[in-house]
Amino acid sequence: MRTSVSDGLTRINRMAPDRLSDMLLNLLRPRTNRHQNEKFKAYYSRCRGPVKGQIEFFQGIGYEVVEYRGYFGHTYYAKRAPVLDWAHRLKTKWLLKKPIARLTSYATVLLRRPV
Questions:
Q1: Is the distance from CB of 106 to CB of 10 less than 8 angstroms?
Q2: What distance in Å separates the CA atoms of residue 52 and residue 39, rounded to the nearest whole number?
Q3: pLDDT-flagged residues of the chain (< 70)
Q4: The whole model's pTM is what?
């Protein structure tokens, strides 16, 4: 199974102690207003897609999935990590040609609860 750079960073954020991930975040994306831009606890379940398991989850809790759109790419590395940014952009271009739902950077979901 192949993994992407963002998947690797997601895993690091999941496993790293909060102090370490906070330090890395501050290095890659300094925050001038920590109150407004504080690091939040990361929860990664249900944030990819659209994949069959995600759709079944929403249907299982009583929703109809009207639209489920996955997106590739982000600009997190642009200013602080040019090599990572270059690699991420290359991966994003490839994924736009050959989409893999499990490798989306994020997704939006439009749900409808039946009457």
A1: no
A2: 31
A3: 1-16, 29, 31, 33-47
A4: 0.54
